[in-house]
């Protein structure tokens, strides 16, 4: 397998593993999701800062507005995602979060990043059908975790768009540093009223969830240096498979035929959008 693709597969495995650790924590304690994200971003800001100091990278961004916008959208998506894990299943949370490439393709034209093509609405329809099958809403009793999972996917789309805009002026490591730094500050403010002192046996799970998430980010960044966005986004959908299998084997989550088909439709929409992006890019080069 291509080195870049392998790194992205490893990244998605780490991201899925982080949700398993998080779910094990929330299932066995009163620790809220926002406390889990605090461990992730606080560990991340320390690592990013040390790397920037070692490489003598400037801490001053060229476009502070875009860097902050990226941080706010990304952190909001992260919070919504981990609360989706807390209140729902890791299978559904990951499936719904991974719809972000479709929303990116639909929203990007409004930021003058990409052109909107009519066929994109076909992929949106496929994704929405998949989302409906995954959530299968009973409007008399809507699962909060499912709603938050979908919101995390929409927020992640805006995070990706602002990242693409911010990268025009600032480096990836600086953008990640500000994401983690701003996330740590916001996280700390909201964490104080609901903080639960972890027991000794819960600390390894908290640290493992944070490290797994950070490793996922590192592997993903390294992977995209060796593959194009189309191949990367297609391989990234492997997280849906990892999450479904981990949820089934480690958390006894139900993997029904309906959820399975919904997941396949979401993956199909991601592949469709990625393929369309490549065709558009090829046409623009001609």
Write out key terms for the chains shown.
77% helix; mainly alpha
Topology:
Elements: H1 3-28, H2 33-54, H3 64-87, H4 90-97, H5 100-107, H6 120-135, H7 144-166, H8 172-191, H9 203-223, H10 229-236, H11 238-251, H12 257-285
Largest sheet: none
Give me the count of strands: 0
Distance between the termini: 30 Å
Structural class: mainly alpha
What string gives the helices and strands in order?
A: HHHHHHHHHHHH
Specify Rg, calculated over alpha carbons: 18 Å
Low-confidence parts lasting 5 or more residues at pLDDT below 50? Answer: none
Strand composition percent: under 5%
As for the number of domains, it is: 1
Task: Please provide a written account of the structure.
- This protein has 286 residues and is an all-alpha fold.
- It has one domain.
- The chain is 77% helix and 0% strand.
- It is built from twelve helices and no strands.
- It has helices spanning 3-28, 33-54, 64-87, 90-97, 100-107, 120-135, 144-166, 172-191, 203-223, 229-236, 238-251, 257-285.
- Helix 3 (64-87) packs antiparallel against helix 4, helix 3 runs antiparallel to helix 7 (144-166) and helix 5 (100-107) packs across helix 7 (144-166).
- It is globular, with a radius of gyration of 18 Å.
- The relative contact order is 0.22.
